[in-house]
Write a structure and sequence with these properties.
Blueprint lengths: L5 H6 L16 E2 L6 E4 L7 E8 L3 E9 L2 E10 L12 E3 L6 E6 L4 E15 L1 E9 L8 E3 L3 E4 L2 E6 L4 E5 L16 E3 L3 E8 L9 E8 L4 E3 L4 E8 L4 E8 L4 E7 L5 E7 L15 E4 L2 E4 L5 E9 L3 E11 L5 E3 L7 E7 L4 H4 L6 E7 L2 E5 L5 E2 L9 E4 L4 E13 L5 E4 L3 E3 L5 E2 L16 E2 L3 E5 L7 E3 L6 E9 L14 E8 L4
Parallel strand pairs: 1-3, 11-16, 17-19
Antiparallel strand pairs: 2-9, 3-8, 4-7, 4-9, 5-6, 5-8, 10-12, 12-14, 13-15, 15-16, 18-25, 19-24, 20-23, 20-25, 21-22, 21-24, 26-29, 27-28, 28-38, 29-37, 30-36, 31-32, 32-33, 32-34, 32-39, 35-37, 39-40
């Protein structure tokens, strides 16, 4: 049974997010029959989760993606987020390209989550559509325009449906027959949860449509962390979202704003907010682009970022990251995806022979390790032959760098409960997470390293990807993973070598 993550969702609700492809700060909302265009993966393996309500009386649910370019996989799961790689999804579609389709006959009503994950080269310009075919006589869902998301200064929400009277609430309660009738448009000036449903003249009630609108003051500047992401940005034409990120001198800053429907421009300036419009001829005080702006060599201090709406847009994401002039290893918490497993290890198995675990039946917490090089230069490993930091593993037939990653299980106060043995790795290029990086892999087990913009992934099913938890009681804990724990490998930044995620050990494991 997979471990549940009730705490994870709460911790990820703060904005901006602290990683790029984790569950989004609040799930993007899909409205039945309303296509979402311009879906773009900033990184090839990003998993973005969408939420939709399947109304009572749905005869068929169909989710499709098409158009654009690249490769993606599509997952569908009721009540719970699908996890990275869709191992626990109720339904999945993983054909080559962007054309995916999932059909569910007689789906249960309620909340369903749609996961879109890039594969191989990632994807861009894709359209997703979720359609619910209702049984004859069933009432339709209310659509909210513009879609829920993050706006500056406020927005105007229009509610639409056919077949009755739309009633709504703004207090979090489901609308009833006594709730006010929806006006032609709602003026939203602060954080607001809109709920609406249609009421037929014969007393029948339609499904509840829900959307959360987050509103920031006009001119507010929000801070971004390196590799942090803010999803769901929306704006009317002429609107502006402002951010800033602190950088050191001589670093490389990249700002990416993409996805969703509509168009915007991105401007970046050191020390102050960039002006609107294009830079005048000869003005080098700020740089303006569409989806990606790069400052190859930064000055120390704050860089201000403006996302300006050329047209009305919705569903946009913005990310900024800083790369020093060297390698920088970082564990990617989004893919840990831990789960409890009870397994029996044979005394002659590689795991036992190499000292990873003792023979016999063991209760373990398995997890996936993904280490990314987020620096500006490759991590190049030395020749392992005769090097005391490497060991030759007979079972694998090649050298591993000793103690490359370590893990611990902590209580909610941060106290150590269980310790995983330090795991040795053969460092190689497994995934290309930055589309601006070199296209082809360079490093492998005979010439080890990780390119800038690439990562190395050790799946949870591989030897050593666990912490032995024994008779640990069910409950809420924290999983900590640290890369390069002894600081043996030279990096430009050691502050991002550790990641901690909440984890729940369920009953019956």
């Amino acid at each position: 049974m997979k471990v549940l993550f009730p705490l994870l969702l709460g911790l990820l609700c703060s904005l901006p997010a602290s990683a790029h492809n984790e569950v989004t700060p609040f799930p993007k909302v899909v409205q039945g029959g309303v296509p979402i265009a311009g879906l773009t993966s900033t990184e090839p393996h990003a998993l973005i989760v969408y939420r939709m309500e399947v109304p009572v009386g749905t005869q068929r649910l169909t989710v499709t993606t098409n158009g654009g370019s690249g490769n993606l996989d599509l997952y569908l799961r009721r009540n719970v987020y699908p996890s990275y790689n869709g191992g626990d999804a109720d339904y999945s579609s993983a054909f080559p390209g962007t054309r995916q389709r999932i059909q569910v006959d007689s789906p249960q009503d309620g909340v369903w989550y749609i996961g879109v994950q890039g594969s191989e080269t990632g994807y861009s310009g894709v359209q997703m559509l979720a359609v619910t075919k209702l049984v004859k006589g069933a009432l339709s869902n209310v659509t909210l325009t513009p879609p829920p998301g993050i706006y500056t200064g406020g927005t105007t929400c229009k509610l639409a449906a056919k077949g009755g009277t739309i009633r709504y609430t703004l207090d979090g309660n489901d609308p009833t027959a006594a709730s006010p009738v929806a006006p032609a448009s709602l003026s939203i000036t602060g954080d607001t949860t809109v709920k609406a449903r249609i009421f037929a003249s014969d007393g029948r009630e339609g499904p509840v449509a829900e959307g959360f609108y987050q509103v920031h003051p006009t001119g507010e500047v929000r801070e971004l962390d390196s590799l942090g992401v803010v999803h769901h940005l929306g704006s009317a034409k002429g609107g502006r979202h402002l951010f800033k990120i602190a950088v050191g001198a001589g670093e490389k800053l990249t700002v990416i704003s993409e996805g969703g429907k509509g168009t915007s421009t991105t401007s970046v300036r050191h020390g102050s907010i960039p002006p609107t419009g294009k830079p005048a001829k000869g003005d080098t005080s700020f740089i303006r682009g569409t989806t990606r702006v790069t400052i190859p060599e930064t000055e120390a201090g704050d860089y201000f970022i403006a996302i300006d709406a050329s047209t009305a847009y919705s569903g946009r994401s913005v990310m900024a990251y800083v790369a020093g002039d060297g390698a920088d290893l970082m564990p990617w918490g989004a893919v840990l995806d831990p789960y409890v497993s009870v397994e029996t290890f044979d005394p002659v198995s590689c795991e036992v022979q190499e000292g990873m675990i003792d023979a016999g039946e063991r209760r373990i917490l398995r997890y996936t390790t993904e280490i990314r090089n987020v620096g500006g230069q490759d991590m190049v490993m030395p020749d392992p032959v005769g090097n005391p930091f490497f060991e030759y593993q007979e079972c694998h037939g090649h050298y591993h760098f000793k103690g490359f990653a370590s893990s611990r299980l902590l209580d909610l106060q941060g106290n150590e409960l269980k310790v995983g043995r330090k795991v040795s790795f053969c460092l190689l290029d497994t995934i290309r997470w930055d589309r601006a990086s070199a296209v082809r892999p360079r490093y492998h087990c005979d010439a080890q390293g990780i390119q800038s913009g690439w990562g190395d992934v050790y799946d949870s099913g591989l030897p050593g990807q666990w912490i032995e938890i024994g008779d640990l009681a069910p409950g809420d804990y924290q999983l900590e993973l640290t890369v390069n724990p002894d600081g043996i490998l030279a990096e430009t930044n050691y502050e991002n070598n550790r990641v901690v995620i909440p984890v729940t050990i369920p009953e019956g494991e």
